[in-house]
Amino acid sequence: MRKALIICLLLPLAVGGLAAALTQGSMEHFAELAQPPLSPPGWVFPVVWSALYLLMGAASFLVWKADAPQAEKTRALVLYGVQLATNFAWPLLFFRAGLYGFALVWLALLLFLVIETAFAFGCIDRRAAWLLTPYLLWLLFAAYLNAGVWLLN
User: Fold this and answer.
1) How far is CA 92 from each of CA 16, 22, 110, 131, rounded to the nearest angstrom?
2) Contact residues for 64 (Cβ-Cβ < 8 A; gap 6+)
3) Architecture of 2-152 per CATH?
4) Which runs of consecutive H residues, i.e. helices, occur in the chain?
5) ∠ at Cα 108 (105, 112), nearest 5°?
6) How far apart are CA 67 and CA 41, in angstroms?
């Protein structure tokens, strides 16, 4: 059980870490862009994302270990994997490629997938759905920031 928890926690951290490695140096360029009001300093992003990835991992562990029908758990964890892959692609689109408009559309897709994942998780373990709530709120804030950068640049 401990090994499964560690894997569940490390998987989203690894996905986020790889995305960060592939977009290394982009925060300097991001800081030079016109920013919408309420834009946080660059150091906030890795701190918040690390916490969110840990919450995602904990939520996935709760679903994995739950006493629920395997088909239901599989569906929920596949959705989780799809949203995690979609999450991985967003910083590449936004930071690396500079495709701010397309990244905003991609972020809308990510929001939809996370909402679907939260509903699927909630049917298995309500705590898992609640653990995704900060992620959803941060994605809404990220959409605001993404839209602002797109409109201002």
Assistant:
1) 11, 7, 14, 25
2) 4, 8, 73, 77
3) Up-down Bundle (1.20)
4) 2-22, 26-32, 44-65, 70-91, 100-124, 126-131, 133-152
5) 145
6) 42
Taking only the tens place, the pLDDT of each residue in 13-35 is 999 999 999 999 887 888 899 99
What pTM does this model have?
Answer: 0.95
Residue 50, token pair as written in the block: 């690390």
Pull the structure tokens for residue 128.
């898992």
Query: In whole angstroms, what is the distance from residue 10 CA to residue 135 CA?
Result: 17
**Rg of the chain over CA atoms, in angstroms?**
16
Residue 70 CB coordination number (10 Å): 7
